[in-house]
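Supplementary notes for students who missed Thursday's class. We covered one full example, reproduced here. Read the sequence, then the structure, then the short commentary at the end.
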Amino acid sequence: MYNILICDDEKDIVSALKIYLASDDYNLYEAGNGREALKIIEEREIHLILLDIMMPEMDGIQTLTEMRKTKNIPVIFLTAKSEDTDKILGLNLGADDYVTKPFNPVELLARVKSQLRRYMVLGAGNTKKNTLLVGDIELDDISKSVTLLGEAVNLTPKEYGILKLLMEHPGQVFSPKQIYRQVWDEHAYGAEGTVAVHIRHLREKVEINPDEPRHLKVVWGQGYKIEG
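Structure (token representation):
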């Protein structure tokens, strides 16, 4: 049985979502703001979060940013039509999907089932301890090995370090200086060029088509991220 956390400060919305989800026999948890949500995910094993954007104390964007530091739980944003900018920001920060209020129950259930399946069957919910999985790429930090679609990939230590850093924070953008400091453990002199070369080599090894990468993405003017 899957555990779903509903985080919304509007009681009517929470009640409606509980009715929609009741037919599929999920364990449902409630939070009225981001602080309550973060406390629950530390105490419980949560498999999916339905997260409102506009909330008191800590909104959905802040909550997602904080959660993505340690958790890879799938997040579906609950948005109003007027929140397009926040919706796009949330997706860039690592949200997995969104539904717009007022909800279509059939669409909501379909998106919930899709994200649970991806997480539990194809994603982090089905990975071994010390193993990271993003899309077609799997990294085993015990054996220091990487596979693409099950085939071994040979990486240099620095390439491995960059890939591990990005895979530990899917959807999060790291600047070249941040990557350099974390992987090289040095002051970031000449970071842009050095990191760019290593990212290019990584793409050649972990992307099926390096010219049209599915996972290792450039966010122009900001840095790099990985997504499934």
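Commentary. The chain has eight helices and eleven strands. The first strand starts at residue 3 and ends at 7. If anything here is unclear, bring it to office hours.
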